[in-house]
Amino acid sequence: MKIPKADIMRHGIFLVGVLSATAMAYWPLTALLGSRLARDYHSLIPFIPIISIYLLYLKRKELLKGIGYSFLIGPAILIAGLAFFTACTTFGGSLNLNDNATVITASSLLVIWGTFIFAYGTKAFTSALFPLLFLVFMIPFPYEVMEWLITFLQKGSTEFANFLLWLSQVPYYREGFVFHTIGIDVEVAPECSGIRSGLALLITALLAGYLFLNSWWRRAILALCVIPITMLKNGIRITTLTLLSTYVDPRILQSPLHREGGIPFFILALLLMAPILYFLRKREEKVNHRE
Prior knowledge:
It is built from 14 helices and three strands. The chain is mostly helical and 291 residues long. The chain folds into two domains: 5-140, no CATH class; 145-290, no CATH class. Strands 1-2-3 form a three-stranded antiparallel beta sheet, covered by helices on one side. The longest helix has 29 residues, at 5-33. It starts with a helix and ends with a helix. The mean pLDDT is 89.
């Protein structure tokens, strides 16, 4: 199929915007992804644009309906992104590696969104709202926000583990984030907060809600369920490791099962999310059938 020259021009403008944004964010994100923080908290960033591109591809026919240039809103957002980028590179020398990547990546996304609106119009942007806003997950959490989230999940996971250990009738006592059992002390460290798997679960829930649910509030319910399920999943993992190290082998706490054994528990979290999605979808289908 032959592409009209007008559309080629639009695609070219958007491509230039994407390449410019990529150049802006490349070095800050590369430096961050090469640090220890990437392994613990930011390892999902490289997958986000791939998912967004695929979602845009699914919406391609709808996006091409009623497209038109936006000479006011698009350039305004584009200029705002360039202004934030300039300010950060000029005055952001005091920012740490994480926060510098946060500001510059956010600036690059403004450039992408502004260029998209300029080339295709606000109607197309509305049609592509989820795939384009999904790129927000490329932005690293500011350091202070990350610390708060880790502490929040750490506390919640510890409470779930405390409840599960109580149910198991294992003799133990607790001091803050530390569980003392027979000859073993197990600490729920910040690294055990599950922030990375929780973020992966949130991304999965948002994608599932976008693909299988229509109402925004049902999508919101599915996403909010990620919080208790992440904590419960971590609580089960902590309890399992505690029981195994107490009654099987204390070396389990230094084994790969402890350091790299999160995948089975992540699968468990997905299995816990599945009936929630099923229930929300069935309820939505029933309501639509009545209408």
